[in-house]
């Protein structure tokens, strides 16, 4: 994950910065929704290599979807 942002850094550094900031904001919002404290085992984080995260914006609302890589 993050390869797209890394590719953007050379040709579109501002876009890469916007995406980095968005990821930070998203994590803050998710933490607020989950009660300000979450414990996640390292093994669970390491086990995300077969997953894809997609998002869209519909009527001013971000919608996130998880799926498996094919």
Write the layout of secondary structure elements.
Elements: H1 3-11, H2 13-33, H3 42-46, E1 51-58, E2 61-68
Antiparallel strand pairs: 1-2
Helix pairs in contact: 1-2
Q: What can you tell me about this protein's structure?
A:
- With 70 residues, the chain is α+β, with helices and mostly antiparallel strands.
- Helix content is 50%, strand content 23%.
- The chain has a two-stranded antiparallel sheet.
- The chain is globular, with a radius of gyration of 14 Å.
- The model has no long low-confidence stretch (mean pLDDT 88).
Summarize the structure.
Helix content is 50%, strand content 23%.
Oligomeric category:
single chain
Element order, helices and strands?
HHHEE
List segments where confidence is low: pLDDT < 50 over at least 5 consecutive residues. none
Number of strands: 2
Strand order of the largest sheet: 1-2
- The percent of residues in helical segments reads 40-55%
Q: How many domains comprise the coordinates?
A: 1
